[in-house]
């Protein structure tokens, strides 16, 4: 069978996100079908034992570009899953603290990436070489190089493909691409809400699962839902690169008896939380997939999603959508979802259209086409 190395950002596990879930699920699925598959966050690993390299993320591209060059030097074909974010609106409107001040002084995303690279180097010496290379080559140039050198590009949705093609017009004819929808773990039955309810004494609350950071926009959610007496539960790790924002969230938690922060949570308790909630809200400034929205839908929870990014490709018309810049929009969408009957059609849609076995089989077929 095929031997695959999945490569991604160096902080994939120390700062887990939706891409962490996606990559681990892919690795488990490939292994279950007989492939040899490992995950690496190294920049320049030896590739002797692998037939193909699968890279992820052209947004944090200074690491992906080094990994691409390493694969090409060692003569290995590359598949790249784009995970492309357009963060301009977030950078200009959604940031807090020093990031907000900095972006007022820069003109484009490339300049901002240069500044973010400086902070990365100060926090982690292993970032110095890839960041210096990005400064020399250019942010957008590195993204184009990765896209052009990969044998296949994988997009998670038609919307993502459209945005990448619009941003990188000169590579349209050179990209050999495929759309493989990202999946969430498909549960055989609805999770039991009793586990969460017994431990925390909460039911039919508003839930938001995601890393605590300004990109996820929990503060606007808190302020939008603040006047309501419905419990609001936040679950997720604190992003310590955004300490000021996290402290602000925690101060609101201390003052509001209807606001709960429960830290990171693993299954089965997390699945039970989705089932115990009435509404799950993801008001982010940008989402590619919004895996927590899929998990909430599978738990028969009404879903409110950001209208920024690609989530509509997954949730269709079975969710409510909000404008992350408008607290009125967030409040309206949350209350409409809360007061509506449970939208069971979302679960049916997810199971029918995003089954993990199909995604794994499509990915193997993609590898085989590259190796031929």
Describe the structure.
With 372 residues, the protein is an alpha/beta fold. 47% of the residues lie in helices and 13% in strands. The chain is built from 17 helices and twelve strands. The strands form two sheets. Strands 2-1-3-4-5-6 form a six-stranded parallel β-sheet, with helices on both faces. Strands 9-8-7-10-11-12 form a six-stranded parallel β-sheet. Strand 1 (3-7), helix 1 and strand 2 form a beta-alpha-beta unit. Helix 5 (109-123) packs antiparallel against helix 6, helix 9 (194-200) packs across helix 12 (269-276) and helix 10 packs across helix 15 (327-339). The longest helix is centred in the C-terminal third of the chain and has 16 residues, at 356-371. The chain is globular and about 60 Å long.
Spatial order of the strands forming the largest sheet: 2-1-3-4-5-6
Low-confidence stretches: none
Average predicted local confidence, pLDDT: 90
Strand content is 5-15%
Structure summary, number of beta strands:
12
The ordered string of helix (H) and strand (E) elements is EHEEHEHHHHHEHEHEHEHEHEHEHEHHH
Class of secondary structure makeup? alpha/beta
From the spread of the alpha carbons, the general shape counts as: globular
Percentage of residues in helical conformation: 40-55%
Instruction: Report the biggest beta sheet as strand number plus sense, adding barrel if it closes.
Output: 6 strands, parallel
Report the C-alpha radius of gyration, rounded. 21 Å
- How many DSSP H or I helices? 17
Q: How many angstroms separate the termini?
A: 14 Å
């Amino acid at each position: 069978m095929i031997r695959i190395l999945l490569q991604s950002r160096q902080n994939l596990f120390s700062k887990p996100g939706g891409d962490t879930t996606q990559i681990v699920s892919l690795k488990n699925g490939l292994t279950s079908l007989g492939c040899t598959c490992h995950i690496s966050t190294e920049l320049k690993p030896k590739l002797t034992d692998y037939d193909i390299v699968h890279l992820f993320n052209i947004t944090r591209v200074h690491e992906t570009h080094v990994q691409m060059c390493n694969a090409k030097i060692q003569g290995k074909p590359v598949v790249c899953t784009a995970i492309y974010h357009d963060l301009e609106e977030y950078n200009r409107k959604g940031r807090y603290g020093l990031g907000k001040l900095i972006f007022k002084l820069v003109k484009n995303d490339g300049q901002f990436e240069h500044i973010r690279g400086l902070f990365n180097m100060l926090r982690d010496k292993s970032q110095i070489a890839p960041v210096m290379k990005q400064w020399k080559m250019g942010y957008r140039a590195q993204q184009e190089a990765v896209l052009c050198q990969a044998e296949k590009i994988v997009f998670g949705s038609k919307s993502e493909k459209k945005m990448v093609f619009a941003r990188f017009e000169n590579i349209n004819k050179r990209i050999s691409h495929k759309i493989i929808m990202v999946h969430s773990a498909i549960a055989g039955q609805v999770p039991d809400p009793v586990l969460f309810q017994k431990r925390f004494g909460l039911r039919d609350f508003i839930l938001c699962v995601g890393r605590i950071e300004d990109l996820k926009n929990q503060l606007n959610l808190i302020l939008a839902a603040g006047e309501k007496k419905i419990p609001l539960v936040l679950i997720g790790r604190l992003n310590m690169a955004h300490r000021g924002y996290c402290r602000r969230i925690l101060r609101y938690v201390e003052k509001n008896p209807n606001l709960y922060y429960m830290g990171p949570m693993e299954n089965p308790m997390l699945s039970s939380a989705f089932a115990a909630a009435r509404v799950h809200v993801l008001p982010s400034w940008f989402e590619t997939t919004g895996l927590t929205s899929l998990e909430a839908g599978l738990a028969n929870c009404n879903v409110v999603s950001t209208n920024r990014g690609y989530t509509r490709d997954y949730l269709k018309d079975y969710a409510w959508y909000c404008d992350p810049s408008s607290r009125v929009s967030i409040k309206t969408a949350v209350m409409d979802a809360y007061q509506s009957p449970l939208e069971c059609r979302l679960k049916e849609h997810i199971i029918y259209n995003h089954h993990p076995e199909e995604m794994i089989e499509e990915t193997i077929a993609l590898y085989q086409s590259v190796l031929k």
